[in-house]
Amino acid sequence: MFQEKVSAFKAEMSHYWEQHRPSPALTRPLTELIWRIYALWAFLMFFSFMLLCLPFIIIPIAIEERRGGVFAFYFMRLWGYGFCALSGIFFKIRGKSYLKKEETYIFVGNHNSFMDSPAITVAIPKQFRPLGKIEILKMPVFGFIFKYIGITVDRSSLRSRLHSLQQIKKKLQKGIHVLIFPEGTMNNSEHPLLRFQDGAFLLAIETQRPIAPMVIKNTRQMLPKNSWRLKPNWIEVEFLPPISTQGLSNSDLPALKEQVFKQMLAHLEGTQKDLL
User: Fold this and answer.
1) What residue ranges do the domains of the chain occupy?
2) What does residue 194 show for φ and ψ, rounded to 5 degrees?
3) CA-to-CA distance for 8 and 17, rounded, in angstroms?
């Protein structure tokens, strides 16, 4: 009897909602306003936290890169967690157990959104140096910080590419991780991954450092390229088993690149099949 009354009540409420549902023409402006307010709040948190953390990031690295970098990246993570928590953005990080504390890695990851920046800052243990296009330096506040915590490259200049390569090798020699997006640009296509460029894998073979693949999920849905409309959500970061480059030569580069590509693609598509 009780269940019949509940069913009848649900049917009555459903009918009432269908009869009195607000017109989309009336609700659309309100929805748009709410999203604009949220986006403004989120970007305010992004830059406010960055400005607060800026001196604690810049000064230690400027004084002594390796030791100061440990302190600086503590505040980089504070920025990532703080900005995201106050913007309704949270993290799920998996696979950290694959990473050895005493090892120095060349991390490679997919790149879909500007929201990848806080994700990798929070996820990668210890300090690291990301490789980015020289255009990043034009960004307000973040560009200034990137001069100290990253490595920039002008892809149109051979001299710049060689200089950035030497910088990366010096960081690895100091025991500092390096992050490279092997797609070479932010992916705005319909495909989960763009074809990889050779740079990260050639570097790994030359330095005999292991490659640590990682996949970042949901950031494109949260903030697509060339969009201002940020959406709150969970960002998932998953570290995959690192791949040794010991004993590899340049002739192994195509196979190494394809191995990493397939491994990352499988996880982005939700496939758990082992492709190693």
Assistant:
1) 2-268
2) -90, 160
3) 14
Burial class (CB in 10 A: 0-12, 13-18, 19+), 38: middle
**267-270, long-range: CB < 8 A, 24+ apart:** 267/215, 267/238, 267/240, 268/110, 268/192, 268/193, 268/215, 268/217, 269/192
Residue 252, φ and ψ in degrees, nearest 5: -90, -5
Q: Whole-prediction pTM value? A: 0.85
The fold of the 2-268 domain, in CATH, is Glycerol-3-phosphate (1)-acyltransferase (3.40.1130)
Please tell me the distance from the alpha carbon of residue 114 to that of residue 135, in angstroms, as a whole number.
13
Query: What whole-number distance in Å separates Cα of residue 11 and Cα of residue 59?
Result: 64
pLDDT in tens, 2-45: 556 556 655 665 655 555 555 555 456 657 788 888 888 988 99
- Among candidate residues 222, 216, 182, 224, the one with its CA nearest the CA of residue 199: 182
Give the span between the Cα atoms of 68 and 95, in whole angstroms. Answer: 27
